[in-house]
Amino acid sequence: MNQARLAAVLGLSAPMLSQLMSGQRAKIGNPAVVQRVQALQDLAGQVADGSVSAGEATDRMDEIKKTQGGSVLSNSGQTTTSSGAPTVKRVVREIQSLLRSVSAAGDIIDAANSLAPSHPELAEFLRVYGAGRTADAVAHYEAHQN
């Protein structure tokens, strides 16, 4: 996939994507674009592990391109379980997207380090959700549910 196609799928201009990829820009302000990036990262992982074929990936990229983002409280079939509840991964991604739209990962880590002496649980939350991997955040979320 070339940069122009990736930019189109994400809903970014090619120059903006170039700035992000070169490190000239570190933050995406549009939560819908952040969600598309996360969806593409998941899709890339599925292609890499063989659970999704290249042809299926192309179709899924077209679906990702059409997504508008949104809240985990919506009841679209793609974001909920059969009972209508948001999936854990979707909830975690929404938390990550919100934190990452507010601040860069390095700044979130700095804030967590500042909070750690007096509020270690909050510092852990910021580290896991603000700068950590989705799989680690899902495990954290599941471990803290009653």
TrEMBL record:
Protein name from the UniProt record: DNA-binding protein
Keyword DNA-binding attached: yes
Record key words, sorted: DNA-binding
Source organism of this protein record: Streptomyces nojiriensis
Region annotated Disordered, chain positions: 66-85
Claim: DNA-binding is one of the keywords in the record: yes
Compositionally skewed regions (Polar residues) per UniProt: 68-85
GO molecular function terms listed in the Swiss-Prot or TrEMBL record: DNA binding
